[in-house]
Amino acid sequence: MYMTSASLFFTYASRLVRKDIPLKMGKVEAWPENTPFVSVVIPCYNHGQYVDEAVESVLGQTWQNFEIIIVNDGSTEEETLDILKDFTRPKTRILHLPKNMGLPAARNAGIEKARGKYICCLDADDKLQATYLEKAVATMEVNAGLSFVWSWTQVFGNESRVWYTPQFDPYKIIYANQTGPSAVFKRSAWEQAGGFQEDMREGFEDWEFWIRLTGNGYRGQRISENLIYYRRMGYSFALRAAEKMDALFERIKFHNPNIYDDPKDAIDRAAAGYCDVYSNNPFANLNNERDYLKGIASLQLIVSGLGSEDTTKALKGMDQTARAGAPLIWVANKALDESTIDLLYETTPFVYILPNFLPQYARREFIHNLQAVWNISSIQYFHKK
User: Fold this and answer.
1) Angle at CA 280, nearest 5°, toward 276 and 281?
2) pLDDT band at 317, cuts 50/70/90?
3) How many Å apart are CA 227 and CA 317, to the nearest integer?
4) What is the residue extent of each domain of the chain?
5) Chain center to CA of 292
6) CATH for 295-385, among 3.40.50.20, 2.60.40.1180, 3.40.50.150, 1.10.1750.10?
7) Predicted confidence band at 4 (pLDDT cuts at 50, 70, 90)?
8) How far apart are CA 242 and CA 246, in angstroms?
9) For the chain, which end, N or C, has fewer CB atoms within 10 Å of the first or last residue's CB respectively?
């Protein structure tokens, strides 16, 4: 706590000198016990064959304080109906809609039943990397000035590539989507913006929603890691939407005249209200060990101050005994290049590259929090000699 306060003081002083985004001090409100912190809403229309993979990717998250709501959007396929009829998983319930309402309406229906502070809409055929929810939630808890968070997207299935979603730019997002549908966002922002536009059922409903959030003064942030897995199979919904892009973009403009009548003025006004909101106790809602993944007997914690080249050497220099021992948590205090990040994830799913999702003031306390909530058997510190 002392180091967090000292770091906040220096951050505040430097902001004044640089005339950067304003910094305000806030208080993290305690979340009620026995209420899910995150609600994962999974709309499902005839994708029953994949839904178990989606749910398992959520159940395997390092952050475990969540609920899962599967929304059966009037599925007609017999296989999907059979799967959902007998589908039972921990923390999971199913909402059956009387008919097919479309993806935006199914998301809204699930969110209306959700209890979480944060919402993640996960398509039934997609998956999440194990640390995604933890990082997304931490990003917004340590900076309440952010309201939606996403990552790069790993495309799999018929394609294998990375969608390098750009960093949030309010002036560009109104012309080109920067965010995938599985971004984590504040439920309060969804309520204030009015939810997903249900007539956008042919596609780009998520883009329209991010644009509306932006126009209402909400700010996003991207995590530069492949934490969302997007399945591409055959003639997909996204491909069909891309063929109708011009018409769908006209619908986006129709729903947001306050932005598109004078785009620069609208975004200037929205951006004028941006500020970072930091706290002396940023992990107040994230410091209970019961909210984290169980079943791992012990973990080795490595806290690294190495750059990309030295991190790669350290990983390749680890002998098989070290790799076969207790699972690793790797915390990097420096930004790393993509190939090094990929190598880290080949070694362990528990990778935390702090500059990718945390401001400087919260990084030391994040490491202390890891030590408190995980069963750590040993700690090593790697520094450049």
Assistant:
1) 105
2) confident
3) 26
4) 38-277, 295-385
5) 16
6) 3.40.50.20
7) low
8) 9
9) C
Question: What does the pLDDT read at residue 180?
Answer: 85
Distance, CA of 206 to CA of 182 (rounded, Å): 9
The residue among 165, 162, 252 whose CA lies nearest residue 214 is 252
Q: What is the pLDDT of residues 63-73, one digit of tens each?
A: 999 999 999 99
pLDDT of residue 384: 80
As given in the structure block, the two tokens for residue 159 are 């394609």
In this prediction, residue 232 has a pLDDT band, given cuts at 50, 70 and 90, of confident
State which fold the 38-277 domain adopts: Spore Coat Polysaccharide Biosynthesis Protein SpsA; Chain A (3.90.550)
Q: What is the CA radius of gyration of the chain?
A: 21
- The one-letter code for the residue type at 364 is R
Give residue for tokens 């159940």. 59
- Under 8 Å between Cβ of 333 and 363: yes
Scan for tokens 């799967």, then name that residue. 83
Give dist(CA 165, CA 168) in Å, integer: 9
